Amino acid sequence: MGVLSMKGGDGEHSYANNSEAQKSITSDAKPEVVKSVNEMIVKMDFPGCIKVADLGCSSGENTFLVMSEIVNTIITTYQQKGQNPPEIDCCLNDLPDNDFNTTFKLIPSFHEKLKMNIKGKCFVSGSPGSFYTRLFPSKSLHFVHSSFCLHWLSKVPDGLEENKKNVYLRSPCPPSLYESYLNQFKNDFSTFLRMRAEETMPSGRMALTLVGRKTLDPLSKDCFKDWSLVSDSLLDLVSEGVVKESDLESFNLPYYNPDESEVKEVIDNEGSFEINNFETIFGLLFSYKTGRSEVKDDCDDDVDHSRRFEVVKKRANLARSIIEPMLVAHFGDAIIDRLFEKYIYHAGRRYDTLRNKPTVNFFVSLTRK
Ligand SMILES: C[S@@+](CC[C@H](N)C(=O)[O-])C[C@H]1O[C@@H](n2cnc3c(N)ncnc32)[C@H](O)[C@@H]1O
Prior knowledge:
With 369 residues, the protein is α/β, with parallel strands linked by helices. The chain has a single domain (2-368), classed as Rossmann fold. The protein contains eleven helices and nine strands. Helix 5 (175-199) crosses helix 8 (260-270). The two termini are 31 Å apart. Bound molecules: S-adenosylmethionine (SAM). The site of S-adenosylmethionine has 24 residues, from helix 1, helix 2 and strand 2. Residues 4-6, 19, 22, 26, 56-58, 62-63, 93-95, 98, 130-132, 147-149, 152, 154, 322 line the site of S-adenosylmethionine.
């Protein structure tokens, strides 16, 4: 389970340096997070201490962008009502193998940027462990945030023996493979909700962003584009004799991108939370932002090849920052550079079909009943 953690540090392939796409989607969800924090405070009648958790914080600054927004919203809401600011407990959770050190080094600048009147009243701590287990005492949390985590399963589903040439679902494949993934997602997401239901106070809130899919068909090409690039790259390495066929056959990702009805069904069946809002946020797969200006995949046939390469490489680095630890644990680290050269090659070849396909992300706002 530990190898599910993203690539740590602040090097070229680290998560900290390759998570612009996640940051951009999380920014789009900010107004809804602010609204939810605001409503929670009023409903709970301005508590003296507020405990907030970011689950799956990873390494890098994304967690603090969210925490700053939450903390500043709390302060503003109290100020507007003429109330003294509360003490705020910010708990950062991830798996024990996560590179917490890279994240913790950013705490001083997080404190530095907070509004003056919260200085000395905001406490940050790490809470290592799986969010599919209990992490916090009963009824202790006021607000839970989690972005880009819940499509990661607690384990690779059972029953994937037939999935020999792919690292995830890809058409054509027997329906039983899809069912294995779906069942694992349902079990895991339901467990996640049950654990949080025990930890969250009545009227506490959760804001969750996860990768989803728009189409009902789980085998639609739109659903697994990144991972099919990884499968094709591994197949190349098998044919070159660099990777053993049996190693590819036994490797599957603990990942599932649900559709809206699958997410809602689990929430309804588990029963502890009410859905306040459910939104779909689209991102562009083959685009990225540098600073404030977005570089898009607007190349035509007379395409600027060096820019196309730059965009594809950026995408490869994003995939690498997420799955390199999993690949290294299974295949060893000797193949990684070569594998992502192949990834860039395949992504470049499919650039025209992939470039305008948006990524699908769900934002869900929930209240503890
Ligand atoms: C793509 S990163 C998201 C990081 C950050 N929230 C963001 O939006 O950029 C997903 C994170 O979820 C964490 N994660 C996955 N499964 C987890 C689990 N069962 N418990 C805790 N963290 C988990 C991974 O270790 C990883 O750091």
